[in-house]
Amino acid sequence: MLYPDGEIAQMLSGIASGATYHVFYGNTLRIPANCNLKVIILKFAPQLQTIKVSGTNNVLHALHVHESAMRRIPTSLRHLQGLQTLLLKKGVLRTFSLENLEGIRNLTTVGLRFNMLRRLEPSKDSQLIMPIEDLDLSYNQLEFVDMEFFIPFKRLQRLQLNYNQIKQIIATNSFVLPLLHYMDLDNNELKQLNVSKWNVLKLDVLMLDNNNLSQLPIGIDRFTSLLSLYLSHNQLTTLDLRELEPLQKLRRLQVFNNQLHTVQPNCQALQNNICQRVSLPTLNHLDLHDNKLTSIDFNSWDLPELRMLDLSTNQLKRVLNLNKKFLKLKELLMHHNDIYCLVRNGTKKDYNMVFDVQAATDNTTCLSNSSFPHPYEQGVTCCND
């Protein structure tokens, strides 16, 4: 144990570079200023209420504390000037204040997952800059997030806020996170998200699965470096690809398990025959399965790199202008729809994998008004109207 005044820590630091406690029974962890341990790990510390560092310590690089009774991050951690990784997991932390970590110049990784965080306290110091690159606040109890809290995080690259109870995220003023490239907001309770004041020019992954969103994030066109956008298990009823057209680097778009009944642009639905085209030149993965689509028209879609398209488990009866549209398409999933195809003897049959059957290679005439040259094999597939 490292109490009452850290003598065991001092003793261990003379013979080892790290100390791991499977069970720590004390209510205070004391770390001497002259302790030479580089790593301290407490795997189970149910009575631990605070950590006291007696003076400036430049040696300790990693501090991991699991299942403690601490409600706040101890202020004395600021004396750990060499600290690079701080993990306080499976505890009862209620509040996260940056002042308690101020001045730790090399602190790049902070993980506070599986706590009881309900509040993020914005710093009152407008000049504060935090060196943290990877921040994990997942599996907490946050309901409200003010993005002002993250203004000092000028080096932040990864931010995890998934598995909270977030209902609202606000940004009163424009802010910049110049290096942020990954943000996870999965499994929250967001009904709307406005990102119009976010300056996150390097963001390439945004995860919003399992929320209650009824529309695309407002201002999503600002995220011009985005490579992957995840929107599955929400409440979207319409998807307008034209709103995503500024995202010219987008490669993966997942919007499955929503309430989609329309994907725009849909030229077939226009009366004046004027249809605006949409171009997503790098999109190679589009997943729209488990929605309520009854028809989809690819005529105005320019997706030259599309390799995977999942339209399964919808209510599709018609798929228009698919032939030779996506020349690099390798995988097309259409099972569990209302499309019927005719085998060569004219018998109607429901194919779960419509485009995986061997299409006719002769000049078979379709008995229905809808026919599809197979998108990546020879022949014709005949389907119902």
Automatic annotation (TrEMBL):
<keyword id="KW-0677">Repeat</keyword>
<protein>
    <recommendedName>
        <fullName>Leucine rich immune protein (Coil-less)</fullName>
    </recommendedName>
</protein>
<keyword id="KW-0433">Leucine-rich repeat</keyword>
<dbReference type="Pfam" id="PF13855">
    <property type="entry name" value="LRR_8"/>
</dbReference>
<dbReference type="InterPro" id="IPR032675">
    <property type="entry name" value="LRR_dom_sf"/>
</dbReference>
<dbReference type="InterPro" id="IPR001611">
    <property type="entry name" value="Leu-rich_rpt"/>
</dbReference>
<dbReference type="InterPro" id="IPR003591">
    <property type="entry name" value="Leu-rich_rpt_typical-subtyp"/>
</dbReference>
